[in-house]
Amino acid sequence: MALPKRAFIAGGSITSFIGKGHPDFIWKKHPDFGTKENPTWEEFLQQAVDELIAQTGLNPADVDRLYLGNFTGELFVNQGHMGAGLVGTNPAFANKPSMRVEGACASGGLAIMAGLDAIAAGADIVLVAGVEVQTTVSARDGGDFLARASHYSRQRSIDDFTFPALFGRRAKAYCEAFGVTADQIDTVSIKAYGNASLNPKAHMKAAKMDADTAAASYKFLSNEEYKPFVKVSDCSQVSDGASAMLLVSEAGLAKLGKSTADVAEIVGRGHSVASLYEDGDLTKLTTSADAVSKAYADAGVTAADINVAEVHDCFAVTECMMYEAAGFAGAGEGAKLAASGETGIQGKIPVNTGGGLIGFGHPVGATGVKQAVEIFRQMKGECGDYQIPNTPKYGLTINMGGDDKTVVSLVIANGAI
Amino acid sequence: MALPKRAFIAGGSITSFIGKGHPDFIWKKHPDFGTKENPTWEEFLQQAVDELIAQTGLNPADVDRLYLGNFTGELFVNQGHMGAGLVGTNPAFANKPSMRVEGACASGGLAIMAGLDAIAAGADIVLVAGVEVQTTVSARDGGDFLARASHYSRQRSIDDFTFPALFGRRAKAYCEAFGVTADQIDTVSIKAYGNASLNPKAHMKAAKMDADTAAASYKFLSNEEYKPFVKVSDCSQVSDGASAMLLVSEAGLAKLGKSTADVAEIVGRGHSVASLYEDGDLTKLTTSADAVSKAYADAGVTAADINVAEVHDCFAVTECMMYEAAGFAGAGEGAKLAASGETGIQGKIPVNTGGGLIGFGHPVGATGVKQAVEIFRQMKGECGDYQIPNTPKYGLTINMGGDDKTVVSLVIANGAI
Question: Whole-model pTM?
């Protein structure tokens, strides 16, 4: 069904995404190790909300609803009930409706979906945020925590690193079905790190990746069958960070003193969920494709209309498969599209311009919100060194939770075009 | 704001709520201990959905959206991403929009709020469910897990049992401010266990509670200041279970072949959230009162119009304070109302007729859904031995998360009156 009421993105904020490998992240060799701490989830969320208010000129009292995407604060930071934390970011939010929504790595996208419903239900100004802090534990413990996005009782044992193994399984199936090679898939990571180097907020802004480094990257799985198909360089980052955006109705726009030309409009959305209990065709992201097709139908556009995209590159192979789910490439042709360079910043269809989950980073609950904010920023020329050359008219996001289980896709239109 | 579109409860299911103290719960002295297992979260959820489908004659393919309330599956059952589990309960749900929402013990109420927005946004049939399994760990570990509903970094250390201590703090403030006595508060637990003994699905259906037993009940807190104010008999149960309901528009009703007389209508709702970071007046549930006042305003009713209620008795003192938040009693008069017997099944305003969180049990994510289903069942005469004598016209629910932080309140009208 089409959107029952027009809904606009009136602004968005993204904190720096940090974690191991980021120069400011306090870790064993950092000069502040032992004397200072990395920011808490409360601090990241506060920063994202404060920046959003400053940027949009929002009167906090005008907010009708608040939604927060978070995957698993209960484990990484011992905190559930974060919707009440979002209310705590400003005294004017007291007694307003707020909730946390969760769908693994699609939690941020779900917060946007809930916000769109709120607009349809009569809200004019909705604050949508996402936050995750996950650098509090070892990589191995973190791998176990993140396995809560799979069907734990069925899938946990595939490897200590459940999700890398699940996508190693996909990479194996995909490479074997279509004759795709590792060096083609590596071009995704090389692009991600390259874009991140142009993005001061990116987790991997200071890291380098080229074909030799990617080819030599460590294969860390214990599962012998999938081990050859996943390297460290293929993986999205374990990041801390937050993102926030303002979703508004036409009346909300007027309240903010903004015109449609100042903002972006969500003109299509798809939200598709597959059963946690069973898996389908490993060579395709069928749930993602379903969500995108709904978003395109809502918006009355096709893949050819999209000028910029943020897709869920939890692993390098996932981005290749997302190109296919989005209709940018045919079945099995996604890796070739990556290798062609056409999804680079200067390419025909730039994808993940700020570095994506691999380069910009992946604070899980924030990611879906960040994707939409990134499209907004590209439309408004706010991307600095990674600004794409032509102002986009239409942008696409695909935010995926688990192994193609919960997917939210948005088509966003530039109000200025 | 009033509901933008009429929304009806077309049916609801509740599984048995079980845990320690329930005769069927497999625990050390149970004959099946070591050979059989208690049901999993997947099994409880499946049972609730299957029963709902059977009861309402629903064609699962007609469901437009799905929402699931769950507090902290990540910890108790190693599972997030349960929205995809809900989709897994029926093949016809594949690719439909589904999400888990969370606001501590108000998670089920939030799922209903999200469902109401979905109706307003154009959905006709929405499946709302809640589930929690929490008997997988020791009481002490469970106390730590549940402390994720408080502001963990600030409040965890109040006691090993954080929430009993937070409500011990309220009980102390409440008793001292208003001269309330423990034996007055005990009448809440005595009613809860008494009602539960009439309810075959109740966790505490086989337990007995009278004034002497309550008075002698163990005070288990380590915190010396609050220890005198909390006994085992005051506490809601650590239960496993699920509940599901069908929320439908007028068009959805027609699809189900039902008339308004067959169902109940949600005519008012309030959703208020307070900051996780600070606490207000300990003698009042101010956030709950705010949510109820919104629900009453929506519905155009007052406390005097309510014929039956389900309120969040996470502790016995909470129910007394909820009477005040609901306007059933003045400030400090809630305990007297409890002691008067007027909130019993035969009383003027029956509250928690199936036993509430103390007697029926409290599988956290299911509770908010169960409350609304209980009101529906009282309206339709489905409560068996605990059916109230006069068919209610209006029912009230108050579902609270944390220490009066996230509150959802509903006014439900009987379509047959």
Answer: 0.98
